[in-house]
Amino acid sequence: MNPSGGADALNAMHDVVSLANWINTLQSLSLANLKKVFKEYHHERLPVAKKSFKSCQVFTRNLRKMRSKYTAALRLFMRRLPKWLWTRMMAKIVSARPQLLFLPLVEDKTRF
Asked: pLDDT tens digit string along 57-100?
């Protein structure tokens, strides 16, 4: 994944929360239960990770195709991103914020 998008860090945080939630559901530490938990975790997180990876691949491929002057223009645009576009991007990023289910839920105070 392209590190400029921060997708690795975001996915890592979501992975930790998801895995902690699944481990918290364990009734016992038997091998069968552990396998079941990791299977559920894998089922939950793999599609998200694949989608993120594919998105980053497309972004990186397109960035490489651009000439240096276009890359500079893109960087300038990203620094001066219109507020409406920034708001839309942030809303998409924070739309799926997992929480640790064994702790009190955090109220969503996001305002765009």
From this structure: 777 777 676 666 677 777 777 788 888 888 887 777 767 778 89
pTM of the predicted protein model: 0.66
Number of helical H runs and strand E runs in the chain: 4, 0
Q: Do the Cβ atoms of 74 and 66 come closer than 8 Å?
A: yes
Cα separations in angstroms, 29 against 15, 36, 37, 53 = 20, 11, 10, 32
Give the tokens for residue 65. Answer: 């195709």
Q: What is the pLDDT of residues 38-60, one digit of tens each?
A: 999 999 999 988 888 887 777 77
Measured distance CA(98)–CA(86) in Å, rounded: 22
**Cα 84 to Cα 40, 47, 94, distances in angstroms:** 37, 29, 16
- CA distance readout (Å), 23 to 19, 65, 79, 80, 90: 6, 43, 41, 43, 30
Half-sphere exposure (Cβ direction) of 63: Cα atoms closer than 13 Å: 15
